[in-house]
Amino acid sequence: MSVSRSDAYTSAGVNINAGNELVARIKDMVASTQTHGVLSDIGGFGGLFRPDITGMQSPVLVSGTDGVGTKLKMASLFNRHDTVGIDLVAMSVNDCLVLGAKPLFFLDYFSCGELDVDLAATVVGGIVEGCRQSGCTLLGGETAEMPGMYARGDYDLAGFCVGIVDGPRIVDGSTISVGDVIIGLASSGLHSNGYSLVRRIYEESGVKGDDIVPGTDRTFADVLLTPTVIYADQVKSIMRDLPIKGMVHITGGGFYDNIPRVLSPSVCANIRFNSWEHPAIFDWIREQGNLTWPEMLQIFNCGIGYIMITDRATADDMLPRFKSMHTEAWEIGTIVRRKEHQEQVEISFD
After folding, report:
1. Residues 179, 190 contacting (CB under 8 angstroms)
2. What is the C-alpha to C-alpha distance for residues 191 and 347, in angstroms, rounded to an integer?
3. Among 259, 276, 275, CA closest to 338
4. Which of these, 3, 37, 181, 199, is most buried using a 10 Å CB contact count?
């Protein structure tokens, strides 16, 4: 492109040449995520993907979209931008996994006031890593430079995942019944929820990013920017051999809002709070924020990032499999009959 042709837009704060440089920088990274089915390269108006539906009776597409939220403010505070792209992919992919879907491809949207090519390339590197962990293709994306919309150095992320599942194998919670077992898979920490509260508590506490989180040997910057776990491998392994009745991604709304999304009105999830390990960061947040554990469980995952619900026999087979996959998992509760006016999630703290 002739530099002179872009001068007018550059004078308004939009650097077309920087955008072209970013595309050139990330092209090989994006290509490294390609899986069988990709029919296009980045740079086109849309991405082309031909899904493999061999052996499926009734293929169904599953889609999910999300962002990273104000965890991005923490990334800017600590000037670390290499992991938030993993968070972006995880939030949408994990939502699709809940229905039993195999992730196919992912699209990202990066918006900022002034494009910093190095920063954007670092963020996209995290998105690429998230796609690798998910086994899906980064099929395309959009970079939007919008002067006046963002403060200098600020940016936002959004993402969109498409997966596929065979109709008869959709996991929707409809067969969950009294006596079923609730298995919780460990989170890596906060994942990507509750950061508006976390940032306030962090700022009021007076700690610094390189201070050590009490009860750990890691800094606050390391712990607060630990990326969300992507549970694709675990779900794929379990669904290949074992029947799952329901799955839950513990995101915003914590236990109380997310678990009921897969339960019928006639049942209740009875959770034992002391049945799993709670990462030290949650103790620190609770103490510094003067919060109760019920309040924490309404906001945060408190150590459980993903839940599977199944019958007793399957649960007994499932736990050793997670151990062989080096995934921490615990039996954290059971499904019981719901009484009139009873909440659908009850947590005991004995």
Report:
1. no
2. 21
3. 259
4. 181
Q: What is the pLDDT along the chain (350 residues), one digit of tens a residue?
A: 555 666 655 665 666 677 677 777 777 777 788 888 888 877 778 889 999 999 999 999 999 999 999 999 999 999 999 999 999 999 999 999 999 999 999 999 999 999 999 999 999 999 999 999 999 999 999 999 998 899 888 999 999 999 999 999 999 999 999 999 999 999 999 999 999 999 999 999 999 999 999 999 999 999 999 999 999 999 999 999 999 999 999 999 999 999 999 999 999 999 999 999 999 999 999 999 999 999 999 999 999 999 999 999 999 999 999 999 999 999 999 999 999 989 999 999 98
CA atoms within 13 A on the CB side of 151: 3
Are the beta carbons of 105 and 259 closer than 8 angstroms? no
190: left (phi over 0), alpha (psi -120 to 50) or beta: alpha
Helices marked H in the chain: 7-11, 16-31, 71-78, 84-97, 117-134, 195-205, 220-224, 232-241, 254-258, 280-289, 293-299, 312-324
Residue 246's H or E segment, with its range, is strand 246-249
Enumerate residues 6+ apart whose C-beta is below 8 A from 187. Answer: 228, 229, 250, 279, 301, 303, 304, 305, 306
Phi, psi (degrees; rounded to nearest 5) at 212: -85, 135
Length of the chain: 350
